[in-house]
Each structure stands twice: as C-alpha cells, then as structure tokens.
C-alpha cells in the first residue's frame, strides 16, 4: 500500500509550520507563539496543496485527471491566500484603528499571504513531495 499520499501533506505541513515558526522567531527575536496561524512565510496551505500536486505528477504523471484536479485546487488556494485573505487583513487593520481606545478585542492583522510567501510555499511543497517520493521507499525497505 502506498502511504506517500497520506504522509506527504502531513510532512509538508510540519516542515512549513516549523519553518514559519523559526522565521517568525528570528524576525521578532523571541519565540513567536503569538504569530502561529494564518500569514507568514512560507504559506502552509500553498505548501500542502502543491505537495500533493507535485506527488501526483511524480508518481502518476501530469497527464492524469488527478493532477488536473490537484493543480486546480492549488490555484484556488493560492488565489484565496493572496486575494481574499489579503483584503480581510486590510479590513482588520482599519477596524483595529477604529477600535483603538475601546474595550473591543484587536483583530488578527496577519491573515493573507504575499506573492513571495506563496512562492515559498510552492517551493516547500514541491521539495517535500520530491523528498518523500525519493526517500520513503528507501525507509520502508530498510
């Protein structure tokens, strides 16, 4: 049984999440537990969907319906991360400015992703899929 389709997205999520935490901790010069969530480099969502698309391409080829669906889902996720979620973040900034000095809780302002963060997610996802595809058979045989 081929568990790589199950392992790859989980492994990619772990790599992207740890990378994001490390990068945010270095940038803020403290452990960045408050920055866990949406936004930041690399994009977790992009990494996960691109890892699955890349794994399908590596194992089954790019001429399969599954690859087409995976690429379609990846585009939707990336457009959402850069478009809609960026607009939500802009609204959060404006609402927080209006609510300064009130008892209203501050909204999270880091929600969407920049194109660089999405590109880093693409690279992370493809790299993780390549690594799992290359090393998982070796680990299972050993």
From TrEMBL:
Keyword terms: Membrane, Transmembrane, Transmembrane helix
Organism, scientific name: Photobacterium kishitanii
UniProt keyword Cell membrane present: no
Protein name per UniProt: Divergent PAP2 family protein
Pfam families linked: DUF212 (PF02681)
InterPro entries the record matches: DUF212
Annotated transmembrane regions: 6-23, 35-58, 64-84, 118-141
Keyword Transmembrane helix: yes
